[in-house]
Write a structure and sequence with these properties.
The chain is α/β, with parallel strands linked by helices and 195 residues long. The protein has one domain: Rossmann fold (3-Layer(aba) Sandwich), CATH 3.40.50. Helices cover 35% and strands 18% of the residues. It has 6 helices and 9 strands, in the order βαβαβαβαββββαβα. It has a 7-stranded mixed beta sheet with strand order 2-1-3-4-5-8-9, with helices on both faces. Strands 6-7 form a two-stranded antiparallel ribbon. It binds NADP nicotinamide-adenine-dinucleotide phosphate. NADP nicotinamide-adenine-dinucleotide phosphate binds next to helix 1 and helix 3.
Length: 195
């Protein structure tokens, strides 16, 4: 069986939280910051790459990692925010679909963007399990990401094709709005009730 090697690009709040959660789950993960040679090495080593960087930096990552991403699952956790914190694009596309256009030979999967970083290492808010919505077009890549989310502790939900990122990205912004503008704080999260 091939081991899933997870390369996390971005060593900020999200990258570090996912690295903690994945390592706790016994997964093999490497994390790098913005050093370009280290990004290239990590992308070449990994079988799954997580983009824990600002949305505006995705073009840089594509340029830096280039064909090291070919054929691999690229997990887009970004929220496409404009300078005022509002959604930068939507309705007829999404940040994830735009990333897929930049990486036609990779398998982009949208995940984790609807969760605050502080819950990403456990998938839980206190005793409650949070939902990780996972959207993507490649069934194998999506299955791998669903398994990673479940291993961390989330209720991992298949949210359909990548174009459903058009709904997950606004949900991510709603999370931010509730947490910050509505002053609920970061101890909130979404849970899909299902039996
Ligand atoms: N924070 C949350 O609760 C949360 C929740 C859901 C989704 N997200 C999304 O997750 C992403 C990361 O958020 P974060 O909160 O972890 O941000 P963060 O703490 O500011 O960390 C960002 C990381 O990206 C790196 N970076 C910046 N520009 C880069 C570039 N051009 N190439 C490579 N790396 C670059 C930074 O490296 P340097 O420090 O060296 O610049 C840093 O390691 C964002 O897209 C955000 O919208 C965040």
């Amino acid at each position: 069986m091939t081991t899933t090697k997870i390369g996390i690009i971005g060593d900020g709040r999200v990258g570090r939280a996912l690295a903690r959660g994945l390592k706790r789950a016994g997964r093999e993960a490497r994390i790098v910051g913005s050093d370009k040679p280290a990004i290239r090495d990590t992308a070449a080593w990994a079988t799954v790459i997580i983009t824990a960087i600002p949305f505006a930096a995705l073009g840089d990552l594509v340029h830096t990692a280039n064909d090291a991403l070919d054929g691999k699952a690229v997990v887009d956790v970004t929220n496409a925010l404009g300078v005022d914190g509002s959604l930068a694009l939507g309705f007829t596309t999404s940040g994830a679909e735009e990333l897929q256009k930049m990486l036609p030979r990779a398998h982009v999967v949208k995940a984790f963007n609807t969760v605050f970083a502080r819950h990403m290492d456990t998938g839980r808010l206190g005793d409650q399990q949070l939902t990780a919505f996972v959207a993507g077009d490649d069934p194998a890549a999506k299955a791998v990401v669903l398994a990673l989310a479940a291993d961390i502790g989330f209720d991992a939900v298949d949210a359909g094709p990548l174009k459903n990122a058009r709904m997950l990205e606004p949900l991510g912004v709603l999370n931010i709005q509730l947490g910050h503008a509505q002053k609920m704080g970061a101890t909130i999260g979404f849970e899909l009730l299902h039996s």
